Known about the structure:
This is Initiator Rep protein domain-containing protein. The chain is of the alpha+beta class. The chain has 4 helices and 12 strands. The mean pLDDT is 91.
Amino acid sequence: xxxxxxxxxxxxxxxxxxxxxxxxxxxxxxxxxxxxxxxxxxxxxxxxxxxxxxxxxxxxxxxxxxxxxxxxxxxxxxxxxxxxxxxxxxxxxxxxxxxxxxxxxxxxxxxxxxxxxxxxxxxxxxxxxxxxxxxxxxxxxxxxxxxxxxxxxxxxxxxxxxxxxxxxxxxxxxxxxxxxxxxxxxxxxxxxxxxxxxxxxxxxxxxxxxxxxxxxxxx
Length: 219
């Protein structure tokens, strides 16, 4: 009896997914579009009490990470991948509408710039350097004044708890980072253009592929 040859090649693009955590409380879904052995696009969704807490889309260029996802994560169809993309689109487009009237900022740290909007419940960021879009839901009690992020809360009073001991150690680094970061207000149209540039990069890949390639998917 002849044994079948079960080896196979993945043709690009293909899609993998990993879900971990407890859906009742907090869980994460990581979905990757594999463009080649060296490049991919990661969609990350964090849920808290079944509601989205964080959404991130990011280009990844890590061969080992992509190989591990290919080898260990669940392979999914384009139909399943499209459902994740639709979830991302729905929340990000909703956030943009909600933040329409809010000021827009170019956030400068050293030679790097990101583009940012927020209100007390939402933060939205586009990073052209790392090719990432990030949306976070939460309670953000700060304001931008004089080009700096200013906390509206009273300064933290430290206790002898383990958590406060950790915060004492990292607070100087956080302050140094904040001091080196400048928030420059820009026109809403400038933010929209910058954001659309980043989103359009991903959309070209998210569109239903018309063909597959052995070594690399290109748009």
